Amino acid sequence: MSVPDSEFCAPSSLGLWLELASLGTLLIFLLRQRRINRSMAEASDQDGVTAADFSAIIDGLDRGTKAHPMSPDDLKILLYADLEKFGFPANEIASVEIGVECHHEAKLLRSLAKLHVEKQELQARRRREKTSRIASCIALPTAPARPAAQ
Prior knowledge:
This protein is mostly helical. Among the domains are: 13-44; 69-100, no CATH class; 101-133. It has helices at 13-47, 72-85, 103-137. It is flat and about 95 Å long.
């Protein structure tokens, strides 16, 4: 059925204005929601003050020599002394944590983990071989063959 001259097919200016108004309302709502989300995120950031807000990473400190490396405790004492020289007294510093590079130790730990895996594989192979040898040694007795009936 074709009804090209009916009124519901013709666009009305009121319908277009209502669509534009609803689109505008949606856009205003989304912009308002974005502003609210940003302000709430900022407020929660300000409420949750952590040590990361007041921390610093200092790189390139003297670590001793390879022959005589310094322990983290010795490095901490030296760092407190250096910070005191720059005007940061020890009683005003909340905490100092020393992180040292340990590439060599990490490499050794990875090698040790590989050796543990190899050990477990060898133990499993030995158990498997042992059980197969035991199974082959224990043969079930077979019944004697009966003479064929004539």
